[in-house]
Structures are given as C-alpha cells and as structure tokens.
Design brief:
Blueprint (H helix, E strand, L loop, with lengths): L1 E5 L3 H12 L3 E6 L15 E4 L5 H6 L7 E4 L4 H14 L4 E6 L2 H9 L4 E3 H13 L8 E2 L5 E6 L10 H8 L2 E7 L2 E3 L12 E7 L3 H8 L7
Length: about 220
Amino acid sequence: MHVVIMGCGRVGSTLARNLEKRGHTVAIIDQSADSFRRLSPNFTGRTVTGMGFDREVLIDAGIEEAEAFAAVSNGDNSNILAARVARENFGIGNVVARIYDPGRAEVYQRLGIPTVGTVRWTVDQMMRRLLPEGSEPEWRDPSGTVRLAEVHVHSAWVGRLAFDIEKATGARVAFLTRLGEGILPKADTVIQEGDLVHVVMLERDAAAIESQLGTKPEEL
C-alpha cells in the first residue's frame, strides 16, 4: 500500500525505511529539504518539501492514493492537525500521530485519533524494567479500562495449565514468553519454569489479580 509520512526526523526516516523493506510505497514530507538526508541512499519513495497539513502538499505526496498516514514531526499541534486533515478531508482510515504531551494524547485518543504518546510510552518502558514484577502495563486501551501486563506468577503455578490462570482470576492469558519467543497458549499449554506470563485484565482488577498470581494457587 501507499503510506504518507509527515516528518523526516529519526522516527520518520526509520519508519520510511522499514515500510519500504516490507514492499510498501512511501512519500515523506518535511519543511526542510535537508532533513531528507536522513533517508537511506536506497530510498526510492517520494520526498515533498512543505507543511504536512497543507492540502496541496499532501496531494503532491499522493495522499489521494494512500491507505495510511503517519504524523511524526516534532510538533504536537502540527501532528494533530495533519492527522485530522488526512482523516477528515481525504478519508484515510489508518492514521496515527506522535504526541509528546500525555494529556493531549489521551484527549485525541478519545476523539478517535490514534496517538503514540512519546513521554508516557518511555515512562512505561522504564517502569517495566525497574519493577521486577511487571506491574506497569505493556499496553492499555484508550479508555484506560483494559490493560495487558507481564505478571509475576508464584512458582507453584509451574506445571499447571495456562487455562487454570484464567479460571482462577477471570483474566485472559494473552501469550507466554518462553526462551525469548512468544507462544499463544492452547487448551493444553502448561506453564513452565522461566515462562513470562502476559495477561489481559480489567484495570480495576489488576492489583487483585497480580496479588493472586503472586501467591500459591488454591486447588481448582
């Protein structure tokens, strides 16, 4: 598919390179033509100098044929404006904007504009590495109701079915990480020593579920 990117900084140029590697066509927009130097010498896409929320600039970048748009410049306002123009004026379904301000990111998520909140994402990643029991979410839905988290499980859960965790807690085992690889649990999947257990649960139940899984399970 054709993808239009606004912003040719480190994120935009890396995104463009990765999309091309996957066989997609790419056009990238930036106010400064010098920014295009960040692109790979093998980049075959289109480069357009201008403002990414300007209608004519977007048309030059092929927005009318695009199926996705990413706004990853350094300005929150510019990213949101460009994302709204792409979605509302050109009907692009797959739109995402990078937002530095966590408060704004939440607001625009609730308005239906997917955002990547740079500050919150970084903090979440740091917290997950600082707290050994994975109490910080790996993912949270825009409403804040559901979270995906890596949950520390008591050693007594080893040898039990992943489904036993679901029966005991009402949560869902989304996947296991075993020896560095992800595993989607089946009905007969057994928790093994060293498994990392990733659970989807309601935010309001997270503390109780983490406490329950951190202790020896009762007989089911």
